[in-house]
Amino acid sequence: MRTIEEQGYHFEEWITPEQIAKDVKQVAEQISADYKDKEPLFVIVLNGAFVFAADLIRALKDVRCEVTFIRVSSYWGMSSTGQLEFIVPLQQVVDQRDVIIVEDIVDTGLTIHQLKAHLRGLGANSVSVATMLFKPTKLEYDDARPDYVGHQISEEFVIGCGLDFDGFVRNLDAIYKVKDQPAK
Length: 184
Ligand code: 5GP
What we know:
Strand order of the largest sheet: 5-4-3-6-7-8
CATH topology: Rossmann fold
Number of domains: 1
Largest sheet: 6 strands, mixed
Bound molecules: guanosine-5'-monophosphate
Order of helices and strands: EEHEHEEEHEEEE
Radius of gyration: 16 Å
Oligomer: single chain
Helix content: 10-25%
Distance between the termini: 26 Å
Shape: globular
């Protein structure tokens, strides 16, 4: 099993690249079936979702779609600040559109809860959520339960495949979970 060290923390490989590829395929198949006759607008949540989104978008079959980006921030280090900040606001008109938010991970659901309200306020016809990872036992906002989930996980802090640790390690090709903390 592969392990890495980042800033004194040890992480071990948890979800392999092969499993992630299967997860992406399954989510893409579901979305392809559900949005066959629609023209969805994918809203990719930067920075973390860019890896999942790139794979997901290319795995869609027969879906005429557009892609745009938004950048929000609610997380620093290993704990949530509880505040959502729009760092890169939405550039695209979402009025009357069927929007699919693409996230790396849904944890408390705060980000999705606020984003959904934002997009509905801008007149979206429908808003659904596709996420690579979901921590169901941490969900605090019921309306943030994702519609399309690559992999459900427990409460561990994870990195890789777009997920960072203070900005780094997004490039890891697997999902790693934290193993132990640095000695004080
Ligand atoms: P939520 O708003 O659902 O609590 O958190 C969503 C955001 O928090 C994610 O987009 C991600 O940036 C960050 N996040 C939540 N859990 C983790 C985790 O286990 N690892 C990393 N790297 N980021 C996380």
